[in-house]
Specification:
Shape: globular
Structural class: alpha+beta
Largest sheet: 8 strands, mixed
Number of strands: 15
Low-confidence stretches: 1-11
Mean pLDDT: 89
CATH architecture of the largest domain: 3-Layer(aba) Sandwich
CATH topology of the largest domain: Aminopeptidase
CATH superfamily of the largest domain: Gcn5-related N-acetyltransferase (GNAT)
Number of domains: 2
Number of helices: 14
Distance between the termini: 41 Å
CATH class of the largest domain: Alpha Beta
Helix content: 25-40%
């Protein structure tokens, strides 16, 4: 059950004194204190993840994350940004793979926790990072964050500062971080596809001969099984007993894992964001075998999370069937673009997707150790270990 905003305001605990920085102040607060500020809902205008989303994440995703918010005021005391962040213990070597990854994995077994650092992450545990400010205030917000974050990290006992998964579209606004010693790393990119076609078959005709042949072979396999039905709903509260285990099957098979969503996250997403939440459900014989958790905003369908029953998924080529059906639904319902999350890049390449580059910015609060971190940063980039990314037409943008 969600908690009312009035109740949250009453439960707000006092934060530390404001951090005084040039051109204003920064104050670390919890969610109730952030909700009590008049600026809170206004600052998310135009973002697909609005104030409701951050309230849901804060209330449903614990997993060792200490959710906080940095209230940035200008010299006149006006709140111009309320930046979400969280503190957690993070293994910096987690994303390294290949021979070096195997070496560090053995080292970690010999000395557990050697690469674990208390880390302040700007953004959200769920999804991409955003600058919580109006378009005209984003550059100002970035300049303030550069000054405030080292103080906030020390106050909260963090030694590493990371800006988590910020779109490359924000590189101009985030330039102050590069100028202040932060290493910019290529995170695992998202993917996009313009839905400038009538239906999936129309799009399929534009792909390579090999891709067309492969997709058609997979779709023929679907016909060898009982028929699938698809429905799209905005609330799956009553069906989570069937759907959440499908999410867990996909989560457990993932090569890289960070946040683990809870049933309450999906429940609140549908109930509190019905204008944006879309859940696609595929059933066979009345039993759900796959689902997507999506957000539909500004003509873009974001397929964020999925679940599949691997008892039938591989034989059905369900991954491809779900993608086809969702794109067809988008074409019928005026969707302009599809956006998908990281990983599983091979089918997305053959589907004709382009990369949506995402950046990480990292710094150590100790200048000497930050020099070492900067030198290591090329090997810490998660995108480095996905060679298939180089085959995308816009790979140079990473």
């Amino acid at each position: 059950m969600s908690v009312s905003k009035s109740a949250l305001r009453k439960s707000s605990r006092p934060s530390g004194p404001p951090l005084r920085i040039p051109d204003g102040t920064a104050q670390i607060v919890d969610l109730p204190a952030a909700l009590a500020l008049e600026a809170w809902p206004r600052l998310w205008t135009g973002q697909r993840h609005d104030d409701r989303f951050f309230e849901i994440v804060d209330g449903t995703i614990a997993q060792g994350f200490d959710h906080r918010y940095l209230v940035l005021r200008d010299a006149a005391g006006v709140v111009r940004s309320i930046q979400p962040f969280f503190v957690c213990s993070q293994n910096l070597l987690q994303g390294i793979r290949g021979r070096m990854g195997a070496l560090f994995s053995r080292l970690d077994r010999l000395a557990p926790g050697l690469a674990e650092f208390r880390t302040l992450m700007v953004g959200s545990p769920v999804g991409e990072g955003v600058l919580a400010a109006g378009p005209g205030d984003r550059a100002w917000c970035a300049r303030m964050l550069v000054r405030a974050l080292p103080h906030a990290a020390r106050r909260l006992g963090a030694t590493i500062i990371v800006l988590k998964e910020f779109s490359s579209d924000l590189r101009g606004d985030l330039a102050p971080f590069a100028h202040h010693g932060y290493a910019r790393l290529a995170s695992l990119p998202y993917v996009t596809l313009n839905l400038d076609f009538k239906n999936f078959d129309d799009h399929l005709a534009t792909l390579s001969k090999n891709a067309r042949k492969d997709f058609r072979r997979k779709f023929r396999a679907e016909k060898e099984h009982p028929p699938l039905s698809m429905e799209v709903v905005t609330d799956i509260s009553s069906r989570l007993d069937d759907l959440y285990p499908l999410y867990l099957q996909v989560y457990e098979r993932a090569s890289l894992r960070f946040e683990k969503l809870t049933p309450e996250f999906f429940r609140r997403l549908g109930r509190e964001m019905p204008d944006r939440a879309r859940f696609f459900i595929w059933s066979m014989g009345g039993k759900p075998v796959g689902f997507y958790s999506c957000l539909l905003h500004d003509g873009i369908l974001w397929i964020d999370y999925m679940g599949m029953d691997y008892g039938v998924a591989l034989d059905l080529h369900l991954y491809f069937v779900m993608k086809r059906d969702a794109l067809n639904w988008g074409c019928r319902n005026g969707v302009r673009k599809y956006c998908g999350g990281p990983l599983n890049y091979d089918p997305k390449l053959h589907l004709g997707c382009r990369l949506k580059p995402m950046d990480l910015y990292a710094s150590h609060v100790n200048p000497l150790l930050n020099g070492i971190l900067t030198r290591l940063s090329p090997w810490l980039s998660p995108a480095r270990y996905e060679p298939i990314l180089r085959r995308f037409p816009n790979a140079g943008e990473l």
